Amino acid sequence: MAEIKLLQHFQVNSVPVAIPVRPCSTMPNELLQEPVDPMLDLLDGLLVVDMLSDAVSMWTVVITCVKSNESLSFAAMYGRRASQLLKEQACCEAGQLAPFNVSYFLLKLTDTQSDAFEQVIKECDEHNLQLQSLIRQALEQNLDIQRARNEDHFGAVIHHLSLIRNKRCLMAYIYNREAIIQSLRWKLGSVLPQEILVKLHNLEIEYFKNHSEALESYMAEMDLDLTVDMVPPKDPYIRVRVLDDIGDVCLGDHTVALTKNSLHFLRRADAEPFISQVL
Amino acid sequence: MPDYYDMDDIIMEDQHIQVIFQVGANGVGLLDPGSENNSVEKGAKVELPFWLAHELQLRQAVSIYLPACFSQKTRNEIKADAACVNLKVHCPYFYELGCKIVPLVSDKTIGSFLYETFTSRYLEMLSKSHSASVLTAPKFLPRLSKEEMQLFEASRSSMMAFKKWRAGGSRLEKAPVLGRKRKTTIPTFPSSP
């Protein structure tokens, strides 16, 4: 790729930054340590190119997480689209009165939104191209990139800031979804109902499975179910009325036929998962 | 310093404010709808989102105008009766933006202005959040800014939790993620406490 060569050409006295390519599901936590900081004054030196290539590899990571889709035009304002993605989330949250309002935005990830994700990445590519052409221009004029403060410099600054902004939006989007997916495991158990599954991206489903497995192996190690009610019950047994036909269920040492409207006297810990899953 | 992943902070920074370019910038014609050669001239007056304006201000590339939500007109409005002003229309993140913009503009009265606004609105908001019915949204809700809305919800949900605790409601419920209907509690006995 010609652009990459151009980048390497710049890397004279800067330390190359290696960004390991990781799957989407593990990204946010590991990137917690590197918030905005070093990127802010980078246009003041050659470091810019370095950080740029950093950003580029960042995007290739993100791109792998997204379904390919048809292209759309550049946004009307830099960073607008990315923040709209987030806004949609935030609106859904605010629209819900129940304390677990998070669910709503999970339910909202439709095709249009995954489109939006893709579009933001396209926007970033555009920024990247423009940024490079501006730097190339400056080089052709034999200017000192570190000191020159001409129109090209500020144009480049704006494109660069837009890149960073878009990155932050996308990262926050993924990160906040991860948090909700994790909480789903605690509330719903290891199997997600279909209505939620269809709202998730394939990689997110995989993430959910991995998280679920990790939690299960930990609980097996501790020999303790951590997902049951935190308050110790007064009586280990509770009386439940079955709302829906479930069929025969093996609970501990015996099998119970849970048919509709039948009453049972069950161990509390056994009944809890059924209640939280609305059965 | 807010969290890097804080959605509210990110959305807040999307607020548009007016700036004047102190320098020219090439290749960013999108910012100035009136430009012809894909660049912004020196002295151009454009609207930028706060995140961009902030960074450019730090590099002395632009100078920021005071946003309309802190103008003298708005201040008079708020001074007249703070509780009746629709802050959401002026700026959904009124307080946050105010706090962030103080170091960037020369007007130093914003701080005290924000403080007065908040204190005069807070009392009514708090009492209403405790007394208002749970199912219907109170009339004044659309007037609140995002920050006030969060406070309102917090106080309302804690009030609801308190009532539930007093009535001794059931502890086991279906996960709220499932189903659109509000809380259909499944009777379980004995309930605690």
Account of the protein in words:
Chain A contains ten helices and four strands. Chain A is mostly helical. Chain A has two domains: 2-215, Methane Monooxygenase Hydroxylase, Chain G, domain 1 (Up-down Bundle); 237-276, no CATH class. In chain A, the strands form two sheets. In chain A, strands 1-4 form a two-stranded antiparallel sheet. In chain A, strands 2-3 form a two-stranded antiparallel ribbon. Chain A is rod-shaped and about 85 Å long. Residues 1-76 and 92-113 of chain A have low confidence and may be disordered. Chain B is mainly alpha-helical and 193 residues long. In chain B, the strands form two sheets. Chain B has a three-stranded antiparallel β-sheet, covered by helices on one side. Chain B is elongated. Chains A and B meet through α4, α6, α7, β1 and α10 of A and α1, β2, α2 and α7 of B. Chain A: Residues 149-222 form the GINS subunit domain. Chain A: This is GINS subunit domain-containing protein. Chain A: Belongs to the GINS1/PSF1 family.
Q: Secondary structure elements and their pairing?
A:
The complex is a heterodimer of chains A (279) and B (193).
Chain A: H1 2-10, H2 27-31, H3 47-64, H4 80-95, H5 103-107, H6 111-140, H7 151-188, H8 194-197, H9 202-222, E1 237-241, E2 247-251, E3 254-258, E4 263-267, H10 268-276
Helix pairs in contact in A: 1-3, 3-6, 3-7, 4-7, 6-7, 7-9
Chain B: H1 7-12, E1 16-21, E2 25-26, E3 39-40, E4 45-49, H2 50-58, E5 62-64, H3 72-80, H4 87-90, H5 94-101, H6 110-131, H7 146-167
Antiparallel strand pairs in B: 1-4, 1-5, 2-3
Helix pairs in contact in B: 6-7
